[in-house]
Amino acid sequence: MSWLKDMFGVQKPIIAMCHLEPLPGDPGYKHEKGVEWIVECARRNLAALQDGGVDAVMFSNEQSLPYLTKVEPITYVTMARIIGEIRREVKVPFGVNVLWDPIASIDLAVAVGGLFVREIFSGVYASDFGLWNTSTGEAIRHQYAVHGEKVKLLFNIVPEAAAYLGGRGPADIAKSTVFNHRPDALCVSGLVAGVSTSTDVLRQVKETVPETPVFANTGVRLENVAQQLAVADGAVVGTTFKKDGYIWNDVDVSRVKEFMKKVKEVRGR
User: Fold this and answer.
1) Distance (Å, rounded) from C-alpha 22 to C-alpha 67?
2) pLDDT tens, 74-125?
3) On the CB side of 216, how many CA atoms lie within 13 Å of its CA?
4) Exposure string (b/e) for 185-205, b if CB count within 10 Å is 16 or more?
5) Which CATH entry fits the domain spanning 10-262: 3.20.20.390, 3.40.50.300, 3.90.190.20, 3.30.420.40?
6) What is the rounded (10 degree) CA torsion for 138, 135, 187, 145?
7) Given a cut of 90, is residue 166 above it in pLDDT?
8) Domain boundaries, the chain
9) Backbone Cα Rg of the chain
10) Are 242 and 250 in contact (CB under 8 A)?
11) Dist. CA 62–CA 249, nearest whole Å
């Protein structure tokens, strides 16, 4: 648990998502605007998040729909360029998430100096992306092979748009995941981005693995953040920071400030 305070400087950190626009190779890529436009969008959203007082940011190719479980090189190469161009403007700890490819996420973190990654590292799922299999041992051996052993791994054990095929509940999954894979933290999600994480499931997971940090991974909003942080050790927040609370809008700094004010009140309790 101590690494949270060491890395983020606060208890119950808020990791804010800096969603990138569609990238080259994505169906939604705006080729007429080019990568330079994506860089400027990322720069603008990063500034709004930091001005709003978040504790950390995570860069993600959220708009690379439909997602791949093994991404094409153009995706993480472009992400590396974007992050590299704005790297000096990042004032808070940052991580990366290449949806949904753990090897690519680790490689990107090592390349750009990311401190953490969030991914689906373990389990087998029936998902909107097809049958979704993983190999934790392969991913972690790769992490050490590329000298990324200092990168913290956040395991999403209740992945979005997917159902675990093992027939076990989140608490049992959490217990075996911690025993077998030694994750740095666990993330618990709702059905898709923006859908609230079940507080009951958060509590089950936290009570089962009290020594492992547990993050609420989706749907944390102003009206439920106190309830979520009463159980979770932190939260990953994206949609609620956007204008009108719509996932694909730009970040609204006033929404970020209001949310972080509430978070500070919760921490003060």
Assistant:
1) 11
2) 999 999 999 999 999 999 999 999 999 999 999 999 999 999 999 999 999 9
3) 31
4) bbbbbbeebbebbbbebbbbb
5) 3.20.20.390
6) 10
7) no
8) 10-262
9) 17
10) yes
11) 12
